[in-house]
Amino acid sequence: MVQSNLSFSRAGVLRGMHFHRRQSDYWCVIDGTAFVALVDLRSGSPTERAVWSETFDSGRLRGLYVPPGVAHGFYAVTDVRLQYLVDRPFTSDDESGFAWDDPDASVPWPTSDPVISDRDSSNPSLADVLAEAPTFSS
Q: Is 41 within 8 Å of 69 (Cβ atoms)?
């Protein structure tokens, strides 16, 4: 990993869904409780289009590895501090996303009315993202 980042989110904030073409992330919730969701966008993967979700909290510290091509997001159940490590320096051409509430992803978010950033609220549909046929490196 080449960089460590710290994200602060107030309760009720949802971040995502984001994905990288080349970068891997390693996440750890160091304070608070977050509902985390992943969607595998990698064509040909044994878990292609699978959705995984779980609640992470600082009372049970554990890490989560997110490879390139796996979309990720989280909902802050409480105020959250999330530390994430990345294996490549950030470049905007490596990051993309799709709408957090896209019915084709069917993420079982614990809310239907989260606080969403302007950036995330303008993400395209999952179908539009997949139509671009993104490629991912491992």
A: yes
CA distance 107 to 5: 25
Task: Tokens for 89, please give them.
Answer: 């320096």
Task: Report whether 39 contacts 107 (CB < 8 A).
Answer: yes
Could you tell me the pTM of the whole model? Answer: 0.93
Query: What is d(CA 103, CA 122) in angstroms, rounded to the nearest whole number?
Result: 16
Q: Which tens digits make up the pLDDT trace of 103-125? A: 999 999 999 999 999 999 999 99
Task: Render the chain in DSSP notation, one character per residue.
Answer: --EEEEEEE-TTBEEEEEEESS--EEEEEEESEEEEEEEE--TT-TTTT-EEEEEEETTS--EEEE-TTEEEEEEESS-EEEEEEESS---GGGEEE--TT-TTT----S-SS-B--HHHHT---HHHHHHT------
